[in-house]
Amino acid sequence: MNRLFSKDTWGEILEALSSNWFRTLLTAFGVLWGIFILVILLAAGKGLENGVKQGFDGMATNSMFMWSQTASKPYKGLPKGRRYNFKIGDVDAIKQSVPNLRFVSPRNQLGGFRGANNVVRGLKTGAYNVYGDYPEIIQQQPMDITSGRFINYSDINSNRKVAIIGESVKTGLYETGEEVIGSYIKINGVNFMVIGTYKKKSQRGGDPEEAQKEIFVPFTAFSQAFNRGEEVGWMAVTAEDGSSITNLKSQVFDIIKARHSIHPEDDRAVGNFDLYEEYSKINGLFTALNFVAYFVGILVLLSGIIGISNIMLIVVKERTKEIGIRRALGATPWEIRSQILLESIFLTIISGMAGIVFASGILAVVNLAMENVDTSEMMFANPSVNIGVVVIALIILVVSGLLAGLIPAQTAIRVKPVDALRTE
């Protein structure tokens, strides 16, 4: 330990490494490049992860969306191929029978992909998707209310014909600067009063413009105005934190099958999109990407470590006479070994830290360039590494330095003083 803090020791290390500075610089570059590649790969993976996950921002990822399909098996005298519809009673049955569910939101819809339903205001007409919803849907899908308010339970209980429109609907049906809140739009011949506007991001790589071309009205008013009765088009089901909707959805399907006389083994009768399952796959993908980044980075670093080990072997060869003299003057094998190991670790850490600083500078420039860019619709955002990665990199450097110096150190202590003194 005293030797570690000895001024003479560090003087010898600096003298040994600077005696052939060009060779030392080339050797150090291998480690610098390895750490640089490792940090950049990890940061790039993090940037990609941030970009993808911001698409889920505000969305209850522990959710699934389910809809009715065609029964594929006969059951209780009913033929296969028959169609059925969810009912509002199914919602209460699911809430009462399946534990750990946070939201079960029934939904109805007019229009299809990219809008197919005429909405009229004065002389202007547009084709937009219209949804009949409950207030909980805003907690299941990301949406920013830009003016007014969203649906509440007073609207639901009173069957109020009110609507929340997207910013693109506002642009299409209203003049610039025209007051929107309190105005009326006509959906399939039925008047609805606008009580709010919203803006939201597109999901899963969709068109951001299309995400604003939607209209939300209370579920009860929708059913009444468009003669849907007790029918439910589809449902958004969210599990509580700590519970997986993927594990609970089979119970939900069993209730639907029992209530609509569907064969218990008919897996095609209920369609679903499991957002939590997709989100888990994305998390698994980024875990794999991090593994690949570490694997590739460490392989590149290993080539640098081999270079340092080779150079240290050459250094030991060049200093054979010096080592012999030190052994003859009473230096212990441990003192010789520690000297070589310290030189190896010092060179590895200095070059590795230079690689970390270089990579950090590159990342700072990239983040500075992205500050004035809207990344909300990009698949890449804020590439960075946390302090844990730096700590891991330092540990890798120390271990690498030890490994690089181990063989040269063992070679050094095998030098016999008499043989060394004969070497010219």
TrEMBL record:
Residues 24-252 form the MacB-like periplasmic core domain. It is found in: Cell membrane. The chain crosses the membrane at residues 21-44, 291-316, 345-366, 386-407. It is a multi-pass membrane protein. It comes from the Bacteria. Residues 295-416 form the ABC3 transporter permease C-terminal domain. Signal peptide: none annotated. GO terms for cellular component: plasma membrane. One of its GO terms (molecular function) is transmembrane transporter activity. InterPro entries: ABC3_permease_C (IPR003838), MacB_PCD (IPR025857), Macrolide_Exporter_MacB (IPR050250). Keywords: Cell membrane, Membrane, Transmembrane, Transmembrane helix. PANTHER family: ABC TRANSPORTER PERMEASE YTRF, MEMBRANE COMPONENT OF TRANSPORTER-RELATED. Belongs to the ABC-4 integral membrane protein family. This is Putative ABC transport system permease protein.
